[in-house]
Design goal:
about 170 residues, mainly alpha, 8 helices, elongated
């Protein structure tokens, strides 16, 4: 029950932070939207900042588990067709997963206020993609599927046009 309440608070915080931003979200409205009193929230979180940090942790883990990351690489594709299919799954996830859409909105707006949001935005919108795909392309080069070249430059050229359109 306690874990369920904590998860409900984080889900409501995700929605409210994405709609109103960090500054525009207050604890009273957040807890009221769940039918809880402020005291219930304080059993799970010490402050709004604590909710914020827990939400960033939760969404970073969710993103890594469903999308991949430089720390959790997806398998190296065995063909160019598999690369395209994997890429399209990643784009579909990024564009259509409701939690990721809200998280992307939060990171885009809050990166100028919060250092951690700035770091996560840079990682998920730029550096993490390039790092992840450079490793994937290096693996495909090792398998003889791609001509040996600079995997980082290839990753940048491959990911940035799509990333720019999405973000």
């Amino acid at each position: 029950m306690a874990k369920d309440t904590r998860e409900r608070i984080l889900a409501a915080a995700l929605e409210m932070f994405s709609k109103y931003g960090y500054a525009g979200t207050n604890i009273r409205e957040l807890t009221a939207s769940l039918g809880l009193g402020k005291s219930s929230m304080y059993r799970h979180f010490e402050s709004k900042e604590d909710i914020w940090n827990a939400l960033l942790d939760t969404m970073a883990a969710y993103y890594a588990a469903h999308f991949g990351s430089s720390e959790q690489l997806p398998p190296v594709p065995d063909s160019p067709e598999e690369l395209v299919a994997m890429t399209m799954r990643m784009v579909d996830f990024t564009v259509h997963d409701k939690k990721i859409v809200m998280t992307r909105k939060i990171l885009q707006t809050e990166q100028f206020r919060d250092g951690r949001a700035c770091s996560l935005a840079s990682k998920h919108f730029l550096t993490g993609l390039t790092d992840m795909f450079s490793r994937i392309f290096a693996g495909m080069m090792d398998k003889g599927l791609l001509r040996r070249d600079d995997p980082e430059m290839l990753a940048f050229a491959y990911t940035m046009p799509v990333s720019a359109l999405i973000h």
